[in-house]
Design brief:
Layout: E1 7-10, H1 20-29, E2 35-40, H2 52-61, E3 66-71, H3 79-85, E4 89-92, H4 100-109, E5 113-118, H5 124-128, E6 136-140, H6 156-164, E7 174-178, H7 183-192, E8 196-199, H8 210-218
Parallel strand pairs: 1-8, 2-3, 3-4, 4-5, 5-6, 6-7, 7-8
Amino acid sequence: MTAADKLLLPSMMCADFGCLRDEVAALEAAGADGFHLDLMDGNYVPNYGMGLQDIEWICKNATVPCDVHMMAEQPGRYVEKFAGYGARVIYVHPEADVHVARTLAAIRDLGVHPGIAINPGTSFATIESVLPLVDYVLAMTVNPGFAGQKWLDFVNPKLEQLVAASHKDGNDYEVVVDGNCSPERIAQASAMGVKGFVLGTAGLFGHGPYADSMARLRTL
């Protein structure tokens, strides 16, 4: 994988919402390939994430694509709303949707890339049957709902499984990692063939100028 192939996606939950317009502009200028936007309902995960108004504003004002990660029960209720905001990818969790195949099809019908998110404790087999329906797999290397957690090493074999299956047997998706994407972990996962990385406090926010951090991460 070359530096140009890598997708670097700042997690906007970690941005400074006191100056959101400036944060968006600075991250775009630093070379962000897109923005990762987290919706949490306090039910599927024990926390609340970004508000709908925040997600809408970023989607409609950013000049780079935006991905929406729905950590919410019954995500099918929201896909039309996020498609209307202009989201490029919508991720849903299989445990949160009893008809996840129908929801993934609805996302594609709205002209948006469907994505499946897989928790650390969720097996590859759980989502294997719906992999032909998605364009992206968001592999969680921490338990969803909170920033600042440690990378769970037991997930690494599953990352290798996901990459190995990504472009065969009717599948055509890219693997994106979400959780403690430090420089060391980005280098490790890049070597496995992981395409994208959600950047939070481990590798981007709080580490000096965004442009410097993004340039370092791009070369790993």
